[in-house]
Amino acid sequence: MQPIMNTYGRLPVTFTHGKGAYLYDTEGKTYLDALSGIAVCGLGHAHPAVTEAIRSQAEKLIHTSNIYGIARQQELAEKLTALSGMDNVFFSNSGAEANEAAFKIARKYGHSKGVNIPTILVMEGAFHGRTLATLTATANPAAQAGFGPLVEGFQRVPFNDLQAAKDAVANNKNIVAIMMEPVQGEGGVTAATDEFMNGIRALCDEQELLLILDEIQTGNARTGRYFAYQYYNWQPDVLTTAKGLGNGVPIGACLAKGKAAEMLQPGNHGSTYGGNPLACGTACTVVDVIKNENYCERVTELSDRIRSGIRNAMEGTQYVSEIRGKGLMIGVKLNTQESAVSIMKSALESGLLLNVTAGNVIRLLPPFVLTNDEADQVVQKVCTQINAFFADQS
Ligand SMILES: *Cc1c(COP(=O)(O)O)cnc(C)c1O
To answer: Does pLDDT of 317 surpass 80?
Structure first.
């Protein structure tokens, strides 16, 4: 039997090292990375400032405990609250754990209002993680199969359907919070419409519900704002992030504002590793580099370049039905009923790392450190794969 549990369908490649947007495998082959470890390594591989942050922090202190003060955690909390306008933050080690903290905040908030079965309204197409509660919130029957009983206190409505959310809230007095991703990642790279985002915020205000935004994937400049809600002129009550925050060093964060920020009190929640000096020291540098080197603007430039590049190259073919998502969360929807998962493998063979989600959506999550030249190579390689896929079909 294999010594690693069989939880992943892995591609036949193992990397030894990386630099910027490139990865190198055990055979010495080079790959252009248009996936960034699934939206994690926004600053690319072996970024000198990140490497130095890890090295210098490891030399001083890796871990103490949350029973003591942690200066780097304090520093990161100040940076994140300043740039988000949220009031405070709880640090975890992963995205799912950040969402678990958000659920506990919502439940405590519900009980504080006298609601006995506090319920969180979640969306079709959502992905919120793999722990039991986050799996319940995730809208993937295949991922849930075999793991019942799932967790109580979740109800689901279609994504981008404001009326459905209003009706659900009107018909269920137990609903205390609405949770969504500004751009659904795993669910097929689908952005919430402006109408839906603004409408859900207004609905939460009217009905005194907490708006929980899962920005685990959309956060940390991925969509062209530090957080995707910053495209709008309001804030969520609870905000979770992870992936890009540590550029690969595990860290998650659950930020809260107003009443939501007062829910968790000593003894209510905790994590042994969460917010330790190594993770927070690294994330402080990641946040600084993103801000100081204007990566939000660069993400927008690269996004425009890659999107228009693919659009131009595919002009005249019927292969692509839509290029969607926001910033460097790019979904290229193919005009096919066939599964396009084979593109992942053939792209790998050609030296390009990408992902295929929801059956026929090519998912690109390239690092922000791409040069224009590298962005053009991503376009060219992706289009070569699309052309080959359709040539094979006909
Ligand atoms: C990746 C992801 C998660 C889960 O994060 P983990 O660190 O894998 O637990 C949750 N929500 C969204 C939107 C994600 O993209």
So the answer is: yes
